[in-house]
Amino acid sequence: MGLNLFDIAVWWLVLEAIGFLTLPISYYLCRNLKDSGYSISKPFGLLLLTYISWIISIAVGYSYISIMLSLVVIAAFSFLIYIKKGSIHFEKKYIIKFEIIFLLAFLIFALIRAYSPDIYWTGGEKFMDMTFINSMLRTTGFPPLDPWMSGTVTYYYYFGYLIVSNLINITGILPSIAFNLATASFFALSFSTAFGIGFNITGRMKYGILTAFFVTIAGNLVGFFQLADIFRKENALNNMFSFNYWTSSRVIPDTINEFPYFSFLHGDLHPHMISITFQLLVILLLLNIMKSNSIDWRSILVVGLSIGFLYPLNTWDYPVYLVLAILVICCNQIFNYSKNHQIKMKFYLTSFASIAAMAAASYLLYLPYHLSYKIDKTISLVPSGRTSLIFYMAIYGLFLFLIYTFVLRNTWNFNKGIFRLSLILPGIAALITLFEARQFIFNIATNPKVNEYELLILLIPLLVLSVLSILKEKDKNNVFILILIITGVFISLFCEFLYIQDALGSADPIYIRLNTIFKMYLQNWVIWGICAGYIVFHLRDFFNSKKSMGDRSCRPHPAGFHISCFCYYRKIRQFQGCS
């Protein structure tokens, strides 16, 4: 069913109202951020609404009344904070620009969904998502009823559907219309939250927009080369209709390689897409902690609440962001204590206590869910079929070019000998990529691979150099980005050696890594997309300085990027992967 302007306006106003109600809480929690937490108000408001309505519903049942009561609780908290702390101050120009960005992102994607609003099977999961939403609207308690088997409950992470159900109940909009409005909302929320991260870490709006672009709009290199293949032929404009967006999501054979823009464009209102907004929320809250000069226990508990929210939202995200939070807390503590050159017992006690409090909050605050939802999946070793460098570069080539440039520049600053030595393995990786590109282009092999473990040649030096850079780094923003880089490396390494067993792999062994790569590479895209936005800002400032302009050895060489740029030029049409 299509969209109309009235429904769009009502939905947008409700999102604005939820964000407005949460502003005092956001301001109180995120005083270390340049925008004082304004950019988290909407996603954090949705998180609070979902969590509180869930808690209330466990006691009194799920209904319109429990949702309204949740809004009252949020408003009461905000009012108490406002009374206790006095007035809150946000920069008016920033608010106006932020809201324009959010509104434009929402309207543009609402227009896209209006062009193709149908909810049906298109190689995706829209039909299943709509089924879960309808089940959520009919349920009176949690866990919600199973829509396929009468008398049983849903054994699935359902908080994403609860978010949508709450908004449908508040607005009164038909579920078939709300489905597409929700998709547009999560794109706008993700774009604006990524913008907030970029702005808060660089202090400049244009880099906030660039960060949001890298995270939510940029795609992998496959789409670029598919366009190049189209435009090199005659009647290029007519051939544009032959562009196959599906190809970009099937890069590594027998896996799924979605990135945020593909997920939003494809339009499945599925947990992996909904969770992007809340992954970014967690990262922004962790940035607030990284910028603090001491442990703020309220921020620690809120991070625990937000990370715990990922478990019933999209369970795949929970362990990754729990580890990321531990790394951020530890590095922030080390950074703060090392300024005084006194790492004593208090350092270890506060670090352990803050990590324990955060982890405990992330689990105990959602204990009713954990007691009702049992995971029957196990982690196993990948026997074979690991990722080729050519395919990995096709997905992350642009990000890796920027990340390696950033890390190598940092390495040059503290040890030129290590810098020269560190060029060897990435150089070998570049040669392997060129060799595999030749095999692929000239149809010698459809899945070229020199060695099962060739990706280590690229990732291990990046991991080592990032750790060494953190040990020498004196800028908290750089430390935060290096932590994100390291987290992305660990995600990639995990996918090379381990996988989560599921029904797909049990049905056909060639698909054992399909879901693991799918869900975890999407996390990696979000994390490294943020890194890319900051690195462009950082390197631009660096190369604009007189000192860097006079030092040619510090300048990045574009060869690393171009290596990944010729892998698909002539053969992109033949590159489909699994469907």
From TrEMBL:
What keywords are annotated for this sequence in UniProt? Answer: Membrane, Transmembrane, Transmembrane helix
Q: Transmembrane stretches, by residue range?
A: 12-30, 37-56, 62-83, 95-115, 155-174, 181-201, 207-228, 297-313, 319-335, 347-369, 389-407, 419-441, 453-471, 478-500, 520-539
Alphabetical list of Pfam families matching this protein: DUF2298 (PF10060)
Q: Which domain of life is it from?
A: Archaea
Alphabetical list of InterPro entries matching this protein? DUF2298
Q: What is this protein called?
A: Uncharacterized protein
Protein source organism: Candidatus Methanoperedens nitratireducens
